[in-house]
Amino acid sequence: MEIILSMHNIRSTYNVGAILRTAEGLGVEQVICSGYTPCDKNPNLLPHQTDKLARQIEKTSLGAEKYIPISYVDDIRRVLPQLKAEGYQIIGLENRINDGRKFTLGSPALLSRLRQKAVLILGEEVYGIDKSLYDYIDLFIEIPMVGQKESFNVSVAAGIALFALKTAV
Known about the structure:
By secondary structure, this protein is α/β, with parallel strands linked by helices. The protein has a single domain (2-168), classed as Alpha/beta knot (3-Layer(aba) Sandwich), CATH 3.40.1280.10. The protein has helices at residues 13-25, 47-61, 80-85, 108-111, 154-168, and strands at 2-8, 30-34, 70-73, 89-93, 102-104, 117-122, 139-142. The chain has a 7-stranded parallel beta sheet with strand order 3-2-1-6-4-7-5. Strand 1 (2-8), helix 1 and strand 2 (30-34) form a beta-alpha-beta unit. It is globular.
């Protein structure tokens, strides 16, 4: 499966770095950062801000950011329609939602709906994907939880979802 990863409103540079390391290791084609996700590709930052972010992200990415194309857009809503037109299925990684488009990762119902090209959207660590993006999303995936906690750290969840998607189709 060809995957573009979208990190929208991720707060932590360490989560961004960990996600980049996992994305590179699993062969993600491209990463798009948007909103307030810390990204040294953000043209709105001053040089000293860019340098600081690059150092913080590299601390957990261990250089993976050098091997994967990364871009920054202020508003991901301008990019998603274009990606849909290019044949990408927009998938949101989310839990705790009641939506008919939500499927459990690994379920036969999900596997029958997946296409060869996808954009996986990750949202903010506590509140998830910004509700304003829901109209762009073709389907949501949820990682089944069996413990007492109701969610994984976003970098861990990204790794689980990316691996499952890459090996599903």
